[in-house]
Design goal:
Enolase-like_N; 35% helix; 12 helices; Enolase-like_C_sf; four-stranded antiparallel beta sheet; 2 domains; alpha/beta; 344 residues
Length: 344
């Protein structure tokens, strides 16, 4: 849908991103995801943004698309002569975080393109990021090991887990790679599972675990801190914005920051800064997203301790291109703006 606001044209569409293979986690299986793609045209410049629904909190792509269609043009206003003010309005907007992410991304893309410079240069960030991961879904041991063998040349692996049976897949993975390995339970564990598996996970050199217990099981997080030689715990579903970081510091070692939770580059940067102030490590992560959304997140990668930006590596027909991958590191595009362009 095309929407006009004075001298600005806003286009909003829903797009299905198909994966090269089915990815399994404790939440189920996915072979495609839906995302919100937008473009804004102003003063001869066309800029793009992507906004992703988080899903696990009940937000759908229809919610994201509907919010942008209803209010996006009014939020941007009639021109972008003062983009910082526009970004302020977007950040304060009471809407799904994915909708804020899409508009925030498009404005950051426009800022760079209007200046004829890469946005990362305007933000004072480097072009090459730290090593990123590649995620391995829940699988039997042989499948898991083959997935690692066939993975892109990344700097670490993240493995989805759901229960005690996954330890055999982790053992198979460790036999075929010496790279760092992290695990992500997506709230599937209980405290007894964590206690029983921790010694074996430590022997395998597992680096950390994301969201082992349900977000509501705060007592389990506190009690796990008492387990000898426990794994560092990073909160994903349990930490969504800067305010939730304050609670996280009492029972976690780090936070997982995603633009689709924080509402874009502006919001994610605030969460990362709050994590630093709270003494927590910061992981910059993503959903299954195109190179457009990954490029939005990558603008902040130098502020993170761990980089988990691999969502675009699973897509069979990428709608955007422009990012590189060298020696396990994402390389940002040199083109003006976010550095990516539509594939078709």
């Amino acid at each position: 849908m095309d929407l006009g606001s004075g001298g600005i044209e806003l286009s909003v569409r829903r797009e299905a991103l198909r994966l090269v293979e089915t990815v399994r986690s404790s939440r189920g299986e996915i072979d495609s995801v839906d995302t919100c793609m937008i473009s804004i045209a102003h003063d001869g410049v066309v800029a793009y943004g992507e906004g992703t629904p988080t899903g696990y909190d009940g937000v759908t792509v229809d919610d994201v698309v509907g919010a942008v269609e209803a209010h996006g043009a009014a939020l941007i206003g009639r021109d972008l002569r003062d983009p910082e003010r526009v970004l302020d309005r977007i950040e304060r907007w009471d809407a799904p975080a994915g909708a804020r992410m899409a508009l925030d991304g498009a404005v950051h893309d426009w800022i760079g393109k209007a200046a004829r410079r890469p946005t990362w240069k305007l933000l004072g960030m480097p072009r090459a990021l730290g090593p990123t991961v590649y995620t391995i879904g829940i699988a039997v041991p042989d499948e898991a090991a083959n997935a690692v063998r066939n993975a892109p040349a990344v700097g670490a692996f993240k493995v989805k887990v759901g229960g005690p049976d996954d330890i055999e897949a982790l053992e198979a993975i460790r036999k075929v790679t010496a790279l760092p390995v992290r695990i992500d339970a997506n709230e599937a564990w209980d405290l007894d599972t964590a206690r029983a598996l921790t010694p074996r996970l430590r022997r395998l050199g597992i680096q950390l675990i994301e969201q082992p217990f349900p977000t509501t099981a705060v007592d389990d997080y506190h009690r796990y801190r008492e387990v000898p030689d426990r794994l560092p715990v990073f909160l994903d579903e349990g930490c969504t914005d800067a305010a939730s970081v304050l609670a996280a510091r009492a029972y976690a070692d780090g936070v997982v920051v995603k633009l689709c939770k924080a509402g874009g580059i502006r919001g994610a940067r605030r969460v990362m800064e709050a994590g630093r102030q709270a003494g927590l490590e910061v992981m910059l992560s993503c959903m299954c997203e195109s190179e457009l959304a990954i490029s939005q997140a990558a603008q902040l990668a130098p502020l993170a301790d761990h980089i988990d930006l691999d969502g675009h590596l699973y897509l069979s027909e990428p709608p955007f291109h422009g990012l590189g991958l060298e020696d396990g590191r994402i390389i940002l595009g040199e083109a003006p703006g976010l550095g990516v362009a539509p594939t078709r």
